[in-house]
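Limitations

Structures in this collection are predictions, not experimental determinations, and the ligand pose is part of the prediction. Treat each record accordingly. The example that follows, with NAP as the small molecule, is included so readers can see exactly what is and is not provided: the inputs are given verbatim, and the output is the predicted complex.
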Amino acid sequence: MKSIILKDFGSVDNLVLAELQIPVLQEAEVLIRTKAISINPIDIKTRAGRGAATAFQNTQPIILGWDVSGIVETSKSDLFKAGDAVFGMVNFPGQGKAYAEYVVAPANHLALKPNNISHESAAACSLAALTAWQILKSYGKIKKGDRVLIHAAAGGVGHYAVQMAKYLGAYVIGTSSTAKKEFVLSLGADEHIDYQKQALEVATKDIDFVLDSLGGESIDHSLNVMKQGATIVSIPSGLNEKVTEKAAARGMQGFATKAYSSGTDMQEIADLLEKGFVKSHIAQTFKLEEMREAHLSLETGKTQGKIVLTP
Ligand SMILES: NC(=O)c1ccc[n+]([C@@H]2O[C@H](COP(=O)([O-])OP(=O)(O)OC[C@H]3O[C@@H](n4cnc5c(N)ncnc54)[C@H](OP(=O)(O)O)[C@@H]3O)[C@@H](O)[C@H]2O)c1
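Predicted complex:
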């Protein structure tokens, strides 16, 4: 099978096409014939030797990637049978090995892909969507009318988070540059803040919940506009470690968290996709062989929605 392997941690030039054996599946796993995969900033960080790189120590060849949508070729699980269309985030933050024509996945990390959703949209709606959904459900406990601030609302996580927070009944405020204002509002955001033109403290106040994809100073600015007792969840590792103590010092709650593979949560996301409450916005589609170009595009930090690749 075709696969993109990482010769060594470092630059995009280390991502190369290779011909490998189709992987062998164990009990409770399925073998997926890939129709689409998606990439995330964690792929970039891991490629460079940070992020989830420790999960690949002493592994050769290194195959990155966690988001996949495809057709079950063989199953050793009662959950899915050959021919089922499935999607999900595989083995995160371990070895997902999604940059390949065939991917082995624990069946309980997957959900059935809705028939009215393309493989591209489904693959996109895995890690980024799970992150948003798990955070909004478990930390957000969003109630109707809650004022929810989503930073980087035009990005992979943010564009799902806006739609999901609206679905949960929140009043949603999203940040982006001017160029992406209409996109953020089209996702259902009630208000837009242009981070290049407006100080957060001037633009808003009385926030109940913040999903922070930026870290660093964004945490301090966010705390300035939150209500007493409100909650902030910050997700960029390396930039979010102080969120708990900073929030506590202000009488608020702060969490640094990571997404985790869950077929149950994926099934909830599948339902949101099928019913049209959530849509994937795909900024660019590449061929698997163009992984280098896909990484270069994502690492600009300017992606609107998601980047997808097909075999
Ligand atoms: N802990 C976890 O489990 C977890 C899971 C997923 C992601 N993450 C992390 O969360 C971060 C975001 O991930 P992502 O997939 O959403 O990234 P992404 O898709 O690459 O985000 C790109 C977006 O960020 C926006 N942006 C950049 N700077 C901004 C600023 N100062 N204010 C507002 N928006 C800004 C850009 O909009 P403009 O062009 O308008 O600036 C662009 O649309 C990454 O660091 C990622 O590693 C963590």
